[in-house]
Write a structure and sequence with these properties.
CATH class of chain B: Mainly Alpha
Strand content of chain A: 15-25%
Helix content of chain B: over 70%
Strand order of the largest sheet of chain A: 8-12-7-11-9-10
CATH architecture of chain B: Orthogonal Bundle
Mean pLDDT of chain B: 94
Helix content of chain A: 40-55%
Distance between the termini of chain A: 60 Å
Oligomer: heterodimer
Shape of chain B: flat
Radius of gyration of chain A: 22 Å
Structural class of chain B: mainly alpha
Distance between the termini of chain B: 48 Å
Chain lengths: ~280, ~220
């Protein structure tokens, strides 16, 4: 074999080997419009709790990751169509979504809350500070009854395809007029403009908006968890990607043990939202 | 396939809103269009420029931007929220109609303007010779000819407007596209639902197309 041929062969073999080493590429889809979970800075760069957590998880998995931006309403279809391999977009683990995709173990949990503008008649409802719909009981029933009465005929704004929309349409709080928006930003805008009597989303989404915009948005009623609100936020993965699911679960274990999740959660949420 | 059949009734129900938005916008748009087309033929420079820039701005910017400025943009201005304008601008329905009307009005004004301009001078001279006054010439001669002239182009505009109403879903209205997205948000299956929605749009365009063809035949000369 001539030296020339050898060289060529070596180049091909090494290319093949390096290709294999770096073939371990994972694309992670996020929305970039749900602060503090995921958002964009002024220059358009993706930032937020999940963007930083994703980078650490990838280091633990030894994978090379790219973070892909995707509109929220196409998030699950995008995963199935292989535009990316995992979702980290503040997506709560719910039974409904689990029919279509798998979820890793939860890495953080959020409570949902109603928000109104200061001075609204819906301010200061007589309910417990928080209700867990999975637990049920007389407290929860009483709170839902109070909410049903207060929200009757009111327009409540939510982002489309969210646990918040599902909850409002479940009938648990009677027949409210649900108005759906493509992004949480638009929900916030219309709440501030007075087009919504109330809005429902992650409590942090409202406090983040109130802080950044200076608008008098206040939380009201109980915080919600359990039931339609799911069991924490996890990584969404295609049903046939069982290997990737295992790797994410392992990486989340490692991140939790090292205190990385609580550290990042405290940095972005202002409190430890990790789980 | 199951999903296609399952989603059909809800999509058909939403089609009602799509038709409503299209018809109302086209109806108001015709008047806006004719009004600005007349201004464009005016010898008064101020009126001419008003019409020119109206059409320039609304044809030169995307409909999505227009509807966003009218709905989300104007909603941010405090004095608008406190004025009587808020009665119209508060509701997504009226904001959508307003945006669509202004948009189709701009395109229609160009269609009608060119139709007015192509009217044979001889016909107008003949009308003058017959002793018709300006108002009669306009309503009996110029307007009918211009309408006939603009039919093919206007039919196109009707189809564009029908498809344009899909943007109503961006301001929370549950039109055909809005409901399609809504169904997808719970089933996560965009292909089936959009095929059904697309077919409904196709049927509606087919009807508009044939309606215009019928009118063209009827009023051919």
């Amino acid at each position: 074999m001539s030296i020339f041929k050898k060289t060529i062969l070596t180049i091909f073999v090494s290319l093949f080997l390096t290709a294999n080493v770096f073939a371990d590429k994972i694309r992670i889809g996020t929305e970039g419009a749900y602060p503090p979970w995921n958002a964009k800075d002024e220059s358009g760069k993706l930032i937020g709790f999940e963007v930083e957590l994703a980078n650490f998880l990838c280091i633990y998995m030894g994978a090379e990751c790219t973070i892909v931006e995707q509109d929220w309403d196409g998030m699950i279809p995008g995963l199935i169509m292989r535009k990316y391999d995992a979702i980290m977009a503040g997506m709560s683990i719910t039974a409904e979504r689990q029919k279509t995709i798998n979820f890793s173990q939860g890495y953080a949990d959020e409570v949902a809350s109603l928000a109104v503008m200061k001075g609204s008649s819906l301010e200061g409802m007589d309910t417990p500070a928080g209700i867990n719909l999975s637990l049920g009981g007389s407290d929860v029933k009483a709170a839902l009854k109070t909410l049903t009465g207060a929200l009757a005929g009111k327009t409540v704004c939510v982002q489309t395809a969210t646990i918040h929309q599902n909850f409002l349409e479940s009938g648990d709080v009677g027949s409210v007029k649900v108005r759906t928006y493509k992004t949480q930003d638009e929900v916030n805008l219309d709440l501030a403009a007075g087009r919504c009597d109330a809005a429902l989303a992650a409590a942090v989404a409202f406090s983040d908006y109130a802080e950044k915009s200076g608008k008098p948005v206040v939380l009201t009623g109980p915080t919600f968890s359990g039931g339609a609100f799911g069991n924490g936020v996890g990584v969404g993965i295609r049903k046939d990607d069982t290997d990737l699911l295992k790797r994410f679960n392992k990486a989340i274990d490692t991140a939790r043990k090292q205190g990385k999740i609580s550290e990042l959660a405290t940095k972005w949420f202002g409190f430890d939202a990790s789980m | 396939m199951d999903l296609m059949i399952e989603s059909l009734p809800r999509l058909l129900k939403a089609t009602k809103l799509t038709i409503e938005l299209t018809l109302l916008s086209l109806f108001f748009g015709i008047f806006v269009g004719i009004f600005f087309a007349i201004l464009r033929t005016s010898k008064n420079r101020v009126l001419y420029f008003i019409s020119y820039y109206y059409s320039y701005i609304f044809r030169g910017t995307p409909l999505l931007v227009q509807i966003f400025i009218i709905y989300f943009g104007l909603g941010q201005v405090e004095w608008i929220r406190e004025s009587f304008l808020w009665i119209v601008l508060k509701e997504p329905y009226s904001c959508a109609i307003l945006a669509f009307t202004l948009n189709t009005g701009a395109y229609s004004s160009e269609i009608f303007r060119s139709a007015f301009e192509t009217i044979n001078k001889g016909i107008l001279e003949a009308a003058e010779g017959l002793g018709l006054n300006k108002i009669n010439t306009f309503f009996k001669i110029r307007l009918p000819i211009a309408i006939r002239q603009s039919l093919p182009a206007y039919g196109n505009e009707m189809i564009l407007m029908l498809k344009g109403t899909s943007l109503a879903s961006t301001v929370t209205l549950l039109d055909l596209t809005g409901v399609a997205k809504h169904i997808i948000s719970t089933t996560f299956r965009p292909v089936e639902v959009f095929i059904v929605a697309g077919s409904i749009y196709l049927i509606m365009t087919f009807l508009i197309h044939n309606f215009i063809k019928f009118l063209e035949k009827k009023y051919s000369y």
